[in-house]
Specification:
single chain; 145 residues; mainly alpha; 50S ribosomal protein L27; transmembrane helix; membrane
């Protein structure tokens, strides 16, 4: 089961990064060029929200089925924090990714309440770009390539 969930989580991550990049760039361009907020912009932001939340659910299942999780009981929290690989997979990656999903959720929720296109794009640009930066900072790049 672990390999299957890890495979899905790894490949779904590509979609998440692509959607976050598209949504962030689209929002920044819309904000800078004073474009009108359209249904297409809404779909992009909604699909980004959905893909990130699906990735969260897959990640939660993976977190509790991974061999890294068992290291908490074997070496303790001190041992996990001293090992850079264990710290990345058990602490840094999950926490920063959850923070990124919080940014996406806040950005999506706040943009719906705004009345003008410029303010909608501003909310999406700020929060989706923060989420993208968080995701890019904690991806285990050695496992991706």
């Amino acid at each position: 089961m672990y390999q299957t969930v890890q495979f899905i989580h790894s490949y779904w991550a590509y979609l998440v990064v692509i959607m976050l990049a598209i949504a962030s760039i689209s929002a920044i361009i819309g904000f800078i060029s004073n474009k009108e907020y359209t249904a297409n912009n809404f779909r992009i932001s909604l699909f980004t929200l959905i893909t990130t939340h699906i990735q969260l659910l897959i990640g939660i299942v993976l977190y509790f089925t991974t061999p890294y999780f068992k290291m908490f009981s074997e070496v303790g929290m001190k041992g996990v924090m001293q090992d850079p690989i264990l710290r990345l997979y058990n602490v840094e990656h999950p926490m920063v990714m959850i923070l990124a999903i919080v940014f996406v959720t806040i950005g999506y929720s706040k943009h719906k309440k705004k009345l003008t296109s410029k303010s909608k794009f501003k909310m999406l640009a700020i929060f989706y770009t923060l989420a993208l930066l968080c995701v890019l900072s904690r991806i285990p790049w050695s496992a991706w390539f």
